[in-house]
Each structure stands twice: as C-alpha cells, then as structure tokens.
Design brief:
Layout: E1 14-27, E2 30-36, E3 41-47, H1 48-51, H2 53-59, E4 67-76, E5 84-95, H3 109-114, H4 116-119, H5 123-145, E6 149-151, E7 156-157, E8 169-172, E9 175-179, H6 184-194, E10 196-204, E11 217-226, H7 230-251, H8 253-258, H9 264-271, E12 275-278, H10 279-286, H11 289-322, H12 325-361, H13 370-377, E13 384-390, E14 400-401, E15 404-415, E16 420-427, H14 432-441, H15 450-454, E17 463-469, H16 470-478
Parallel strand pairs: 3-5, 6-10, 12-13
Antiparallel strand pairs: 1-2, 1-4, 2-3, 4-5, 7-9, 8-9, 10-11, 11-17, 13-15, 14-15, 15-16, 16-17
Helix pairs in contact: 5-7, 5-16, 7-9, 11-12, 12-13
The structure holds 4-amino-1,4-dioxobutan-2-aminium adenosine-5'-monophosphate and magnesium ion (MG).
Keywords: Aminoacyl-tRNA synthetase, ATP-binding, Coiled coil, Cytoplasm, Ligase, Nucleotide-binding, Protein biosynthesis
Subunit structure: Homodimer.
Subcellular location: Cytoplasm
Length: about 500
C-alpha cells in the first residue's frame, strides 16, 4: 500500500492507494475521482478504455466518502493537486457511502459541530489537525533538546491552582476531588527533583461563558525551571514559541495554504525579537489616541468587506443554477467559505464597539480581558511579552516584584493579529511565610497545600515557569477564529457531544 504523500517516490510505477472519495465527476468515458487517504489528496483518472466497462460502471457509483482501493500508474502533473495523478488500472470498492451530510449544502457552524466526527475529514479541518500534531511534536523536540524532563501531573487533584471559580468538582470515594486546572504545582515539585521539567496534559476549567478562546478541556504544556528568574523565563518562552512557529512553517506550507493562512506575521515570529512591554506600558497603550484611531479604521474596513463579500455571494448564487457539476462543487465550497467569513466579519462588527468601550474605560489594576488583548496585539507585528502585572489579579503563588510590591513577576505572551494570550507564567514565591500569607489572602485552605509548602522548607530556590495553551496556539498559527476548530472534539459550555 502506498500513501499519497509518498507518490513523488513512485513516479511512473504502478501503486495501490486506499482511501475515501473526496470528490468525483465524470465526462465521456472518464471518471475523475479525487481521493483522500489521510496523508493528502490525489486525482485518480478512471478511463473506460483502461479498466473496461464493468469496473468503469461500478466506479461511477462512488459517491463522496465511499471507501475504495485504486490501483494505477503514478503520472507527474503539475496542475494536479499534490503534483501527481493516478491513471487507474483497477478500482476495488470497499463500501459505497450513504448520502454524506457535510457537503455540498452550505451549513452553519452548529450543524458542523454536531457532525464534528465527520467534519474532521474536510480539508481545512484536516490541515489544522496536521499542524496541531506538528506543534505537539515540536514542543517535545524543543524541551528534549534543551535537557528538560517530561513529567506527568495528576488529573484528579485535591487543591485549586488557578482560582476557585473554574473548578470542576467530582466525587472521589469519600472525598471531593477537582479536575486539574494546571499541572504547575506538581511541576514545581518535579523541578526540585530534576531541575528542568515540563508537564503536558489535559487541563480543565469550568468556563461559564462562550468565547472564541475558552474551552472547558484544553491541553497545556508547562515547563518549570529551578534557578530561573523572570527574565530567563521570558527568554525561554520566546525561543520556545519561535521554535514551534518555525517547525510549522518548515513543514506545512501546503496545509497553511489550504487554511488560506497569510504567513507574514508567523514569519516575523520565527525571526524577529518579540516586543516586551510592562503591564503599565500596555495600559497606557490601550488608552492612547492611536488605539482609538485603529479601531475606527477597522470598523470602516470591516463594513466595506462585508458589503463586497455579500455582493460576491449574490453573484455566485446566481451562477449556481446554470453551472456545470464540477463548477457547482466549487461554488458550494466558496459559499461555505463566504458564510464562515461573514460570520467572522459580523462578529468583529459586533465586537468593535465593545472593544472601544473596554479600552476607553480600562483602569490600571484591572486584568486584561479578551478585547483588551485583541486591541493590544493588533498594534504589533510580533508576539508581545507583557510582564509585571498587578498582583491582585494574579495567582497566589506568584512572586512579587522586589521593586514594587503591587506587582507580580508575571508574564503573559500575547499572540499577534488579535489572538491574545497563549502563555501565562511567572517567577514563583520561594519564601514560606510569604506564601502562607498569600494562601490565606486568597481564601485557600492551607492544609491541602502542605505538600506544596514543603518545597519551600527543603532547599527552596528561586524558580519560574509558564503554561502554553495548545488550542490557542493552534488557532493563532492556523489563523482560525475560534478554538472549537483546533482540537478534534472540543468541550465547551453546552458542548459535550460528539
Ligand atoms: O494563564 P493560565 O491560567 O496559567 C496557568 O495555568 C499557570 N499555572 C501556567 C504555569 O505557569 N505553569 O493558563 C495558561 C494558558 C493560557 O495562556 C492559555 O493559553 C491556556 O492556558 N488557557 C486556555 N485555553 C483554552 N481554554 C481555556 N479555558 C484556557 N484557560 C487557559
Ligand atoms: Mg492567564
């Protein structure tokens, strides 16, 4: 069996591909079957002269998503998707699919989400999952190259790590347990045993609002390093993100093309130093005239885009009636894309007034909301490292800035183009008395943290770490507007199936 991805190594040979029909059309003694096999797409040409009447007729019954084995000669053809096509000598049907629900009708997002188990086969979804895989692999590569030890944190925990409002509680025999919000506290213990470690696993937060960047179950990678201060932590976060972006750019030109991803900003993230600003500078930026102008311009641009894209929609809908079958398929695809884009633009237009208000009313001491991050990142070409946040809005374990006790030695990385926070981290408090006081201030029960406090009793050292959310990173790199398309089966408020 040969995979489509390997066809370049088999030019002019006879191979057998096994896969699913992505598209098919017929004309005068020929079937053009676009086959997908998980590794790519390939056009297979079935000619009656080559395969004979019987097989030709059978192949004509192949509807979308039917499973099939096609044997034939590999012919180089630059116009063909993937650069090669198959001139079939044999077609062996495995199963004829029922009427496939996903295409060619145009569907709303809710329908697609209900059919996520099938939607995953579509090109854009396929491309995003391929990139997700590379992101995860490159995370391991980076840390393993840097001498980090991968370690696993438990999913059932007895204590909160990131505030008590988003805890999922569950019965654990006679006790209550929580699903982990972060592996960090366990990572700190392992860092005291191994120096530099990272955890990588699913984390859970009962996020009670629907936003484009919140899931209730998401994957997080969390490095933790003994003897690292905030600056070392920021340097690590920057080179780590750069490595991931480079890996995707190196490997996924064609997938990024399928996603119609403009890679200008990704290339900058792969080569230029990230912008570093303090929280206080970021607040000034947010409230500046420059920000106001940017939002005004954006609003008029989006309005223009909306009217032109709606015009295109009207025009191609008219064309649809008289179009040939192959053209109809193209139009259907385009209609689907336009609807998605309209959804996005309309969402922006609903958001812009909210962003304007949020920026104008922002006060020092508040935490940045999604809108504030979006506005900030739209003003820089590279990711931004924002450091030194008001301690009040951050977690109990963060060390205060020795220069200013109101500030925590925290860092967030905000991804450009409006994406916002992909990393949160900090230097940790290493003094036991201060840490006990913080636990009390946050209204947390000290007993459940006794093991964590031990880390400050036995050879406490300055240490730091951060967490990178996989789904938000995939969304940014793939240019997806919502995290629901960044994980095979997203879990969000109101979404537990499929
Ligand atoms: O900023 P957060 O809450 O930081 C922590 O959990 C720290 N304990 C990490 C550490 O220092 N080891 O979350 C880290 C990242 C966010 O920047 C974001 O990318 C992602 O996790 N994240 C979410 N992703 C999707 N849905 C959610 N509800 C998320 N909450 C956080
Ligand atoms: Mg955060």
């Amino acid at each position: 069996m040969t995979y489509i991805k390997q066809l370049a190594d088999h030019q002019d040979e006879i191979v057998t591909l096994k896969g699913w029909v992505y598209n098919s059309r017929s004309s005068k003694g020929l079937h053009f079957i676009e086959l997908r096999d998980g590794s790519g797409l390939c056009q297979c040409i079935v000619s009656v002269d080559e395969v004979g009447e019987e097989i030709f007729e059978e192949a004509g019954k192949l509807k979308q998503e039917s499973s099939v084995e096609i044997t034939g000669k590999v012919v180089k053809d630059d116009r063909s998707v993937g650069g090669y096509e198959i001139h079939a000598t044999d077609v062996n049907i495995i199963q004829i699919a029922e009427n496939y629900p996903i295409t060619p009708k145009d569907h709303g997002v809710e329908f697609l989400m209900e059919n996520r188990h099938l939607w995953l086969r579509s090109q854009r979804q396929w491309a995003a999952m391929q990139i997700r895989n590379t992101i995860q692999f490159s995370i391991h590569q980076f840390f393993q190259n840097e001498g980090f030890v991968r370690t696993d944190a438990p999913v059932f925990t007895g204590n909160a790590a990131e505030g008590t409002t988003t805890l999922f509680e569950t019965d654990y025999f006679d006790e209550k347990a929580y699903l982990t919000q972060s592996g960090q506290l366990y990572g700190e213990a392992m860092a005291m045993a191994h120096g530099k470690i990272y955890t990588f696993g699913p984390t859970f937060r009962a996020e009670k609002s629907k936003t484009r960047r919140h899931l209730t179950e998401f994957w997080m990678v969390e490095p933790e390093m003994a003897f690292y201060d905030l600056d070392m932590n920021m340097d690590l976060a920057e080179s780590f993100i750069r490595f991931i972006v480079k890996s995707v750019l190196d490997k996924h030109e064609s997938e990024l093309e399928i996603l119609e991803r403009d890679t200008t900003f990704l290339k900058k993230a792969a080569s230029e130093p990230f912008k570093r600003i303090s929280y206080t500078e970021a607040v000034e930026q947010l409230k500046s005239d420059q920000t106001k102008e940017l939002l005004d311009t954006m609003e008029s641009d989006r309005n223009e885009e909306l009217s032109s894209i709606k015009k295109e929609l009207d025009e191609i809908k008219k064309e649809h009636g008289s179009a040939k079958k192959w053209r109809k398929a193209q139009i259907d695809q385009r209609i689907k894309e336009i609807h998605l884009r309209i959804d996005q633009v309309e969402e922006d237009l609903r958001n812009i007034p909210v962003w304007k208000k949020s920026a104008a009313n922002f006060e020092w001491g508040n935490d940045f909301g999604g809108s504030d991050e979006t506005i900030l990142t739209m003003q820089y070409d590279t990711p931004i490292l924002v450091h030194r946040y008001p301690a009040e809005v951050k977690a109990f374990y963060m060390k205060r800035d020795p220069e200013d006790d109101k500030l925590a030695l925290a860092l967030d990385v905000l991804a450009p183009e409006g994406y916002g926070e992909i990393v949160g981290g900090s230097q940790r408090e290493e003094g036991i008395d201060v840490l006990k006081a913080r636990i009390a201030e946050h209204g947390l029960p000290e007993e459940v943290f006794s093991w964590y406090l031990d880390l400050r009793k036995y050879g406490s050292v300055p240490h730091s770490g951060f967490g990178l959310g996989i789904e938000r990173t995939v969304a940014w790199i793939c240019g997806l507007s919502h995290v629901r398309e960044t994980i095979p089966f997203p879990r969000m408020l109101g979404r537990l199936r499929p």
